Amino acid sequence: MDAIYILSSVGAVTCLIFLVKVVRHLHCYLRPSSLHQCNPLGKESWALVTGASDGIGLGFAQELCDRGFNVFLHGRNHQKLLRVQEQLKAQWPTSKTKVIVFDAGKPTEEMSEIVREVGNANLTVLVNNVGGAIGVIATEYIKLQDMTHQQVQDLVSVNALFPAQLTRELLPILQKNAPSVILNMSSAAAHGLPWLSVYGATKGFVGTFSTALNAEMRAGGHQVEVIGVIVGSVKSPGNAHVDEGFFIPSSRTMARSALERVGCGRSQLWTYWRHRLQGFVFEWLPERLLQLVFIKRVRILIARRDEKQKPA
């Protein structure tokens, strides 16, 4: 009888813990965003989006303009940024935009140039979106031994060093203008996808960096929320070999989902709920089985990429 009682108690506690986790997850996706607190009435609030020329960065710029923010558009191609600026001005004429040209592959002390561009603007949102492998290496799927020394350096610089250094530079401004929020783009690749070893490692850095910095802000009594946004597959120029589907949103949908999670109280989160479903699989499968799933999936993506790159 005692054994039955103990097993029943353990089962009840296990079910309760599972139910609490489910409720916590549902709360994140059903509660309204608190992003509006970063854009109070009577103030001109600004957001800075890195990598805003296209893809998820452009999606963030569009969504922030739609929510009444002014936006600093960062990128390394001046002409592309000007085209984006014109598009945003045509669709949201009341939102101001400013272009900031800076090569994220060279995060040096000269990053103070970005701080000077921000100036006295009421900056309350920082989106560390710039990253990826396109433009750094010839293909996003490559064996580590086939990469050059410079390619490894550039991947780490763009995906890890630049967001960390930029955040360090802008943090005093965000603290002064609080409440404010920092969104750092992480990735499902941090779970260990093959042929993405360095890129995945940098995204693991972004996740830990977000969690630690969020705790640091709380410890210091600063109203600066930091969220590591875990991103699955998204249809974008840098991921053009996939098509939109149930688990693959557009870049703007991905950006919208991240902004809608502001205030959820989590320092790392799959902000797109369908990606969260995939995340459960990552967490539950044994590591060796998960590796087999990853290997098969990436091989399919490589085959699709190679097929699309074939001359017509």
Automatic annotation (TrEMBL):
Family annotation (Gene3D superfamilies): NAD(P)-binding Rossmann-like Domain
Keyword Oxidoreductase in annotation: yes
Any matching Pfam family: adh_short
InterPro entries hit by this protein: NAD(P)-bd_dom_sf, SDR_fam, VLCFA-Steroid_DH
Keywords on record: Membrane, Oxidoreductase, Transmembrane, Transmembrane helix
One GO cellular component term: endoplasmic reticulum
GO molecular function, one term: oxidoreductase activity
TM regions (residue ranges): 6-23
UniProt record similarity statement: Belongs to the short-chain dehydrogenases/reductases (SDR) family.
Name recorded for this polypeptide: Very-long-chain 3-oxoacyl-CoA reductase
